[in-house]
Design brief:
The structure holds two protein chains of two kinds. By secondary structure, chain A is mainly β. Chain A has no helices and eleven strands. Chain B is mainly β. Chain B contains no helices and nine strands. Classes of the chains: A mainly beta, B mainly beta.
């Protein structure tokens, strides 16, 4: 069964450093998303991406965040200058037709020290 | 987006059927009802989606009454591995409007 993969599984970085989280969505999917979940809290939407551009973004997704689909398979989330409050699990998701049937990856645990 | 209300937690025993009800009084005509499951430190997993009446798959059943203002996720004969948080989401089926808004969900604890 095809699945979404994410690397790394755990990333530790110092405050102010740039991080890139990587995702490989399911191959024939067209819509891509990033979510995050701070420990013990709700899953929060960050950004959606379709046809090589951002479709929607939340208030969390400020100028420090960017997304890219550099080739036909990878989908990345970059945080330019990490803050302590960026520590969270980051989940990538994809779907074929948009909407609510999304397939999530296992997540990257980001720890900012 | 329609607001959803579901119990914060539920307890059950292995082998029992579990029904989790979600209220969504403001559901729109083009909204579907979708349920996700999340285990600790894992990404949410799509379980089931429906529009009206009943939908069944290998994991669960979803019951939706005619007025669609609520829905019930039914898990038959739960096991310890069904211990997880279950989320009810209401929104449109396709297109770019797919930013999922998760609530706190229902934390299901299955005991031996």
């Amino acid at each position: 069964e095809p699945e979404v993969t994410q690397t790394p599984s755990h990333q530790v970085t110092q405050m102010g450093q740039e991080v890139i989280l990587r995702c490989v969505p399911i191959s024939n999917h067209l819509y891509f998303y990033w979510y995050r979940q701070i420990l013990g809290q709700k899953v929060e939407f960050l950004v959606s991406f379709y046809n090589n551009e951002i479709s929607e973004k939340s208030e969390i997704f400020d100028d420090q965040f960017s997304v890219e689909r550099p080739d036909g398979s990878n989908f990345t989330l970059k945080i330019r200058s990490t803050k302590l409050e960026d520590s969270a699990m980051y989940f990538c998701a994809s779907t074929l037709a948009g909407g609510y049937e999304q397939y999530f990856g296992p997540g990257t645990r980001l720890t900012v020290t | 987006l329609a607001k959803t209300t579901q119990p914060i937690s539920m307890d059950s025993y292995e082998g029992q059927e579990v029904n989790i009800t979600c209220s969504h009084n403001n559901i729109a005509t083009n909204d579907y009802i979708t349920w996700y499951q999340q285990f600790p430190s894992q990404g949410p997993r799509f379980i089931i989606q429906g529009y009206k009446t009943k939908v069944t798959n290998e994991v669960a059943s979803l019951f939706i009454p005619a007025d669609r203002k609520s829905s019930t996720l039914s898990l038959p004969r739960v096991s310890l591995s069904d211990t997880a948080v279950y989320y009810c989401l209401v929104g449109p089926y396709g297109g770019s409007q797919g930013n999922l808004i998760f609530g706190k969900g229902t934390k299901l604890s299955v005991k031996p």
